[in-house]
Target: Zinc finger protein ZXDC
Amino acid sequence: MIFSCQICGHQSSNSVAYLRHVKIHNNLPNLVLQCCMPNCTRTFTKCAGLKAHLYRKHKKRVTEPRLSIPVDLTCHVDFCTAKFDSLTKFYSHLKGHIKEGRTVACPFQQCNKSFTVISTLSSHLTRKHRDSGGGNLIESIAVSAGVSGPSGTRDDHDLLSDMQLDAAADDEQFEVFPENIDDSLFFRNLALFYLKLQAKLLLPASTIQTIIEDLQSIHDISQSQLLFKLNEKLHVLGISDEAIRTLIDDLKTEDLFRTHNTHTLRTDQRRRTVFKKQFNHVEPVPICMGQNEAGKESFVQYVPIKQTLEALFQCKSVSDQYNEVHTRAQTKDVFKDVWDGENITENPVQTESLHLILYQDAFEVVNPLGSGKKKHKVLAMYLTLADLLPHHRSSIDQMQLVLLCKEQDFKYFGQDLVMGQLVKDLKDLESNGVVLPDGQVRKGILHSIAGDNLGSHGIGGFLENFSLSVNFCRYCEIDRNTFRTDPLCRATTRTVQSYREHVQRLEGDLVQSGGIKYDSLFNELSFFHVCKPGLPPCIGHDLFEGIVASDLALYIQHLVKVNKEFTYLVLNRRINQFKYQGNDANDRPCEVNPGRDKLGGHAVQNWCFLRMLPVLIGDKIKSPAISAGQIAYLRVLVDEYLHFRKQAFPGQPLKPKHHYVSHYPELIIRFGPLIRLWTLRFESKHSYFKQCARKLHNFKNLCSTLAERHQLLQAYLSAGNLFPQAVAVEKAAEFFPTDYNHSIRESISSFDFGPDNTLIAHEATVKGTKYKKNMLVVINESSEGLVMGKIILTAMATLVDELKEVLLRALPNLSEAVQEILIERIINSGLESREDLRYVKQDDIADLLPVIQQRKLLHAFKLASSQFSSPTTLSVHSCSASNVTEDSQPSSHIQKSWPESFQVPWNLMPTDIRSAISDGKRPSPAARRQMVRVVADEMRKNEANPTRSQCLTVCRNIVQQYPNSFADHLDNGQLLGSGYTSLLIQVKNRIENLNRTSSFRQHRSSGRGEKRGPTDTYGCTRFQPSLPPEETENTVESKRQKLQEIYSREGINGDDRAEIKQLMETTFYLQRCHINVLPAPTIEDLKTKWPYLFSQKGLYSHFEFLTDIPVLRTLELAMEECGKAIVEFFKTKPTNVKVKEVLSLGGDVELSYCVLQLLMAHFSENITDLILLADGSATTADIERTINIPETPRLILLGDMASIQRWMVSLEGHILCEGIQPTFLTGLAALFSTFYTFNLKYQEEAACTLEFIQRRFIGINPERGSKIGRGKVLSKKTGKVGMKKSTTVNPHVSTLLKRLMDFQWDFI
Model:
């Protein structure tokens, strides 16, 4: 069989020769090595991985021999006489000894190895004794053992040990053959190695020279020894001295390493010459600008942009991406990339052009102090192409350098001198274009210039003083006074014409006009102007280093100092103790400094802090694709934010960045999603130049040094693949579903995963994003919010096997020959994932299948791709609500649904709404929000939870009735999407908030196990668990007795021991059996059997096992989250006289006790129905003797409320347990636990308060059942006493929950 190298086409006669050959490509960037075996699509980035794969997967294996005579194999480990009838069982037994901590000697003759690690033993047996057979075992193990040929099945031991092999050990398994190495390939690989050292690893030229010389010396010594040995052996063979000298001279001449090291690559200058000739190197051109302030000549290092594009397109992957981007299907009103923005879609002439995105910024290459500040500050401009896929565009390697100069020189010489040559070349690109490798000429158009606000204003000719200038916006002509007075004011948008008018005014004595101080040099281009717009905002600087950094600090300060919700110490402790995963661990948020008016972190740290607020405070998550309706909703949110921000902090004026955010909706329509043009990825490019400066220590001509090194790096990258694989998995193994537990097997049951088509790994990189085990990812969205998933296993199905599966499912009778041709053609067409199957067209397979089969297969491809594609946007289209057209009218005999006949109660609307409607103007954000509340409340009178379709009908009718006030449109009158999406989202969100009983917890379903009754199993996840697999009835009973013995010796204080905790966890099954038995046992009986259950820790632990909820921690978080809000609610809206009495008491009491008092007062329940007070010095016996303790649970507090000394919990007239922490909340947690631990109903006297605690604080919300007993009630109609109706949710509780949500809505 011939094996062909996919990189250079070299052909090898066997797999070993193929492996030896591919090593010559080791230094290629982003190396991808294809498995050389037929029908195997595995790829690798390292030769070691390919070698291990070939050995494990494709090498012919010798299976375990079968013993020919039925003899027993006797264990040879000391004091063990176990016997076995097969090698498999014998090997497993040896591994068991290792688990015991014993040392196991190799069981084969003439092998003295010993092992203490199972994996090492398995690897040794596989590598050394795979072919030994039973006949080579030590005689004491199998005296009469004989061996037959290989059996028909492969031993499990072989499979497991194969998975443990490392690549280094495979060398001994392959025979090495001499092979002729191509001189040019070796030379290229060696040159790439030196280029990698210089350009990528940034070693100084002197260091590289030392490495080369020392390596050559070592190589010469090794060669001398080798030639000496060769000389000796040839003399023994009788070869003449002259022939030997000739042979040795020839060998020296053929030494490739010495030849190139001592000639072509000998010096730094020679190596640079080779680099420039061998690879796509674009030489930076120094352009003299004249003499600077110090009288020295200054240069700008310019990399010719046309040559850069020509070199870039020499890489095939760039051409492929260009074609893919220009043939992609676009969805109307959905913005996924810059290609969906109007800057491109409105100019048909631009569709086939190259679209250039420039970025400029100044950065320090060192961290100077004092007089050295700004001395080495460099201005850089980079280039990327909008014609690349977004995840590749954010890669640093593909970003090209355009120019470098010192920032001081840029300020001194100005834009014309520094960037004049660049603009000249851009004009040439617009007119003449650039010739690509395929011979086609493509014109180049400048799409945009990204940068921070200071840099963008400098490029655009705008004023750069944001704190004092009157006109501070580059998108509109708003002035500072107007913005401070009315942040929502829409000023005149800047246009090309208005810009020119201001520039003409500058011809006089004016320094600036309308915020413009000079005409930008880039406005000379035909297809670009800074006011088209051409200077996109950076959400990193505007939001994360601007608004988030300053405003979030204000909100936190308000919550800490005014509301006193928490302290800075608590918040900073949570920030530091939070367990960050993945990339978040690299950008941990900084602590919040009480003395600063803004957050201290950089943009990514602040972004991380904002995303972590669902755990700390709260936040929302952005989507990578935005629909037109979402843009409209964004505008509503921005207006609301600016309105309420101005109201909340009138003493803190809004900043220019607040105003820039108000332009985001229009700018998204122009540029596409702004995250595609933010500067954070460009700024990462600075790190390369900073490393260069710090490692090379050469500051004499800094810009020249940096530009030269960067261009050498680009030459190195051009030698291989510029972009990494879309999906990359390292250290992967075959996936065997049977090796995993039931939950994993169940989760993948809908997929055809198996060892033939699936790999597993601890991490995988998909389109540049690394996914690791234990990371949390968004997997869906529900009415409750985002559904998160935790990665516990990374599995990847190989593409060929997936494709084959789809083919056979659609066409089961397809021949293997046609299958292979189809697979090869589809793979070669550029298929990267199963999702790409949707792009296969009928023309692609027209010559291989009949028409009907083609259609069947394309239908199967469509289904297969949609099954694995995840929606990235929530687009809202009017057609999704109904198939009926807008102008169609229902027949008179068809009854209208309530949404169609819904009447908006305009008479209940705020005055601002009614005035806006009559004047045809848009209402204020506060008035619009109030209108949404009224509409939602009125809709819920018809249906408690209206569907999105029903909400859509109502909102569409409102917008059609009053389009000027409520339709989604831009300032220029352009309608966004359907025109009513923002109102629809607001109404639907309001309804979902009203129906959500807990803002931060999802509803929990009742347990699925054995059901005893809705009251008993209510909210439990392990009401009656199964017996642990390693236990029996006798063993758990013995452990229960052991607990009794420990209690008899050590008493209740023994529950601190780890052994007690372990025994209680193991016997949880038996505890539930004893509690759940019918008739129910007395508490005294249970206390005798389970003494450690009747402690604070015992109750907490049992409740957590039973419900999966840590009761004390949950209550603490609930009090932090909404305790003060509940108190404020009752202060604002006291619901009855008892509530007012509680509020009037005041006093220094614990917040949780105050909340409980208010709740019981609101529900007209007596505090004594849950809480009893006793003397602080009383004992258990004193309390049981002096207090008439009720049968139902009570929390007994010892001492006064200002200083609780102890607490106890009682049940059935006796003390159940005593607390070890003197706080009210710990006692309340223990009291609540008793209702679930012992299957108790809530006492009717305190049922409402307990159900409120259950639903709002604990978060238990089952779909059926109730813990409230059905009490008796007198019927008004019949006058007879009957049973109360049973309801899932107490109406008094649900009403209070709803009113609290309405109250909290004002603070959102």
The mean pLDDT is 80. The two ends are 70 Å apart (CA to CA).
